[in-house]
Amino acid sequence: MVWEQVVNGGLVERCGYQPRDVMILGFGQGAMVALQLAALKPEMEFGGIIAIGGRLPSLASGAGGKAKTPVLVLGGSRSTQVTRSAVDVLKARFGEVEYVKWVKAGDSMPANREEMVPIMQFFARRLKSRAGVPEGAVELG
Length: 141
What we know:
It is built from four helices and four strands; from the N terminus they run αβαββαβα. By secondary structure, it is α/β, with parallel strands linked by helices. The protein has one domain: 3-Layer(aba) Sandwich (Rossmann fold), CATH 3.40.50.1820. A four-stranded parallel sheet has the order 1-2-3-4, sandwiched between helices. The longest helix is centred in the C-terminal third of the chain and has 14 residues, at 113-126. The chain starts with a helix and ends in a 15-residue tail after the last helix. 26% of the residues are buried.
């Protein structure tokens, strides 16, 4: 439903965005939905998934092969969701996975600059430059 109504039906077909232009940030269950969506479409490269305190659902379905969409997953030092085994599952299902373990114990939204910097760096690497780019310049990466 998320793919059909929101991403494909709304953003791609109605608004004209390409999947590479779509980045999804999710917290907890929202992170699980975002990861599942990208796992279901491994041949499609979305702009990226930022998963805070969420993992790929254990019964996640999806086509074979690693998903092209890059993933940033963040969790607290004593996270019950973002465990080493959960990160290993993500690395098996996605071609590019970056894991950040926060100093704080639990999973929660970023509360300070230190926790926000990895998210901002991920955005900076994944967002396409549109303004102020000289003619003929090419985006790398």
